[in-house]
Structure formats: structure tokens, C-alpha cells
Amino acid sequence: xxxxxxxxxxxxxxxxxxxxxxxxxxxxxxxxxxxxxxxxxxxxxxxxxxxxxxxxxxxxxxxxxxxxxxxxxxxxxxxxxxxxxxxxxxxxxxxxxxxxxxxxxxxxxxxxxxxxxxxxxxxxxxxxxxxxxxxxxxxxxxxxxxxxxxxxxxxxxxxxxxxxxxxxxxxxxxxxxxxxxxxxxxxxxxxxxxxxxxxxxxxxxxxxxxxxxxxxxxxxxxxxxxxxxxxxxxxxxxxxxxxxxxxxxxxxxxxxxxxxxxxxxxxxxxxxxxxxxxxxxxxxxxxxxxxxxxxxxxxxxxxxxxxxxxxxxxxx
Length: 316
Ligand code: SF4
Ligand code: SF4
Hints:
Blueprint (H helix, E strand, L loop, with lengths): L1 E7 L21 H20 L4 E6 L9 H11 L4 E8 L16 E6 L7 H14 L2 E7 L5 H10 L6 E4 L8 H10 L3 H5 L2 E2 L4 E2 L5 E5 L3 E3 L7 E4 L12 E2 L4 E2 L2 H4 L7 H4 L48
Parallel strand pairs: 1-2, 1-9, 2-3, 3-4, 4-5, 5-6
Antiparallel strand pairs: 7-13, 8-12, 9-10, 10-11
Bound molecules: iron/sulfur cluster (SF4) (2 copies).
The site of one iron/sulfur cluster (SF4) has 14 residues, from helix 7.
């Protein structure tokens, strides 16, 4: 069985203080950290034992995981196991990078977010260079706040073209076309993030080939639907896996809607779905099509079932 697991344990502390984040500068007590470590080690023990499956794992901690030794160790150890296809984590990249030399760099990957104001630009860029030199797969992104725009442009210009820079629409923010154009010039896939995706009843791979797991081993289809499918550690979730439509009205987070079958994102990110690396370089859209609208302002393709090629957003 091919299974993608999104793991989020109790860790909720972070070394950064982003004004847009509820976890900014939160501290976990020693007891909470021990519980997070125990939960993570239980999970990695389970993942290591699933030799009959092919697993892809994305750690999506509330806070920052890589400042904790147990997350670094989990990435290194899981990457070396034959049945693990990919192991990735969302990170602010505040940690050192040398430990990644011990990982299988064909399989380990980082989803890195640059938070201007939280770390000097040169330090963040230096970390990206270290990852490139180590041969680690990574994407880099920013939250699309106007105050981040110049720093994002500077970063895009400094990163090698093969490093994808993504832009997440800021939560609760509505973008004018002019604003969206500015972000789309940096990330041609920004139109996917600009608006929440209508998802009610649409087929979504979560709950079938993708699951979300918390520190207790409770399995849900995704981080956003609270219905429980069983527990990871007693295997009870397996009989609950199957195709099912989304029960929510909209899905507005990349780690959710990337799995919607009505969007072409498994093709766009083929081979790099978890770490958000497109299969082919993405290009800025051309100014206008025959209808006078820039391609990124036309409605995004929405199809049912597996998408025919002609409905796919052109990204290459
Ligand atoms: S780095 Fe991430 S988790 Fe930490 S405060 Fe910023 S947004 Fe929140
Ligand atoms: S579309 Fe989003 S909210 Fe709905 S089931 Fe899929 S991941 Fe969850």
C-alpha cells in the first residue's frame, strides 16, 4: 500500500515571533517536550515497522520542529529506510543544516518558510545555499503580505532558478488583481493560493491514500476534518480508508487542497507533492490571452475525477 502520512504531534513552541501566527514565541514545558518526543518516537517506530507499505511522511508541526533533536533524528532515520519514499518537514529553517549530511538526500526534503523580520535575510539565504550544496531537496516560500514583497523579490532573484519559491495567500486577506499580479510574478502558482477552493463533495485523496495522524495516533483524513478514522497503532484505521468526498465547504490550505482530485496539483508537483516542489520549472504567465485576461486571472481548472490533460494548468 502507498500511504502518505501528515504527522502533527503536540509540539506548539517556536523560536520565532511572527505577528501572523498563534504559536509565535510559545514555550512548551519540559513535560510537553518529553510528551512530544515520546509521541514522535512512537510514530517513527511505527513508520519504520511498516515494511510492507511504501510511506511518504510530512511533518507539519504547529511550531518549529527542527530546533528539536528528535525531529532531526526522525528525518535522518526514516530517510534511510527502503520502504520510505519521502520524508519532509515544514520549517522556518532557523536550525543548522550539517546534520542533513547523514540523511538519504534522495528522500529527505524541506518545506522552508522565510519570515522577514524574524531572521536576517542573509542568514536565511545562507541556509538555502547550504541546502543546495548538500544536495537536499527544498522549496522556499513566504506569506504574501505587502510588507514581505520586497524581501520576497530579493530572495527570488538570489535563489537559483531551479529552487521554487512559493507564495501563500495571507489568511483572511483579499487580493486585488494588481496585488495578485505582483505575487504571481514571483510564484506563477500563486493563483491556487489566492482564493479558498470550493471542495464540498469533491473527491479528495485524503482518507484513502493520505491520512493525518496526531501525537496519540488518532487518524483523520486531513488536518481540517475532525472525524476520526481510527487509531494508527492498533491498525483500526485501515478498514476505514476509502474514497470519499470532502465534507467541508472549502479547503484553503495547500497541505489540504493539493490532494483534491479536482485540481491538477499531483501533476504539477509530481515527485514533490509533500515538499511543494513542482515537477517542471514554473514560468511567470504571459500578460494576456485572446480573451484579454491574463491566464492566471481566468478561473482555475476544476474537473471531476482524474483530469484530462487539456484541463491542466500549464506550468512548464
Ligand atoms: S516560524 Fe512558523 S510556527 Fe514559528 S511563529 Fe512563525 S509562522 Fe509561527
Ligand atoms: S479538500 Fe481539504 S478539507 Fe476537504 S478532505 Fe481534502 S484536505 Fe480535507
